[in-house]
Amino acid sequence: MATNPPAPAEPTETRCAECGRLLAADETRIETEDGAFCTTCFENLKAQLRRAIQTQSSDINYPTALVGGVLGGVLGALVWWGFTVITSVSFGLVAIVIGIAVGKGVTIFSGHKRARGLQALSAAVALVSFFYASYLVTRTFILRALAEAGQEGTLPLFPDPELWIRVVSPGFQMFDLVFLAIVLWQAWKIPAPVRLAP
Ligand SMILES: [Zn+2]
């Protein structure tokens, strides 16, 4: 006649994800994606994280970071230039690899440091790399056009600034500015410091 009332749900026990201690039912706990933490462990972890974030921006070896950035810039410029030579299309979107390669180079060579100064360095190297690469690309087209016209022509691999401007500026168009902006944004973004959410 009496039906069995459903057993009251056992309160599932929760352990601190860090120290493994059983948390009392009324104890303050901090729920995160990685589980629940007791307040002591949570404060410790937060302090550790804060220290890690501080060290990411300290003791930065800028010369090494510069080497990494320049290597990335050379690599990115070669990719863009190579793409252009193979396809015969000056496809500016490929230039985005310059921004990524420079940003990665700076980050890797600085020992995965992140700081405002590295961001500025990265963006500056990317800017120079972009303009040097656009010189290489344009130079290839000019030399090819000259050769097709049966004319001899030479352009140095490393131009002086005046020659460089004369070669690059006629072909520079509005959308090149857009690509340049994307390149700079990539290079700027990659070494950005990680911030602790408040
Ligand atoms: Zn704990």
How much strand?
under 5%
| Structural class designation | mainly alpha
Rg, alpha carbons? 28 Å
| Mean pLDDT level | 88
Any key phrases for this structure?
198 residues, mainly alpha, 2 domains, two-stranded antiparallel ribbon, 2 strands, binds zinc ion
How do you describe this structure in short?
The protein has 198 residues and is mostly helical. The protein is built from six helices and two strands, in the order ββαααααα. The model has no long low-confidence stretch (mean pLDDT 88).
Overall description:
The chain has 198 residues and is mainly alpha-helical. It has 6 helices and 2 strands, in the order ββαααααα. It has a two-stranded antiparallel sheet. Helix 2 runs parallel beside helix 4 and helix 4 runs antiparallel to helix 6. It binds zinc ion (ZN). The site of zinc ion (ZN) has 8 residues, from strand 2 and helix 1.
Break the fold down into its secondary structure elements and pairings.
Blueprint: E1 29-32, E2 35-38, H1 39-56, H2 62-87, H3 96-109, H4 116-148, H5 161-168, H6 174-189
Zinc ion binds next to β2 and α1.
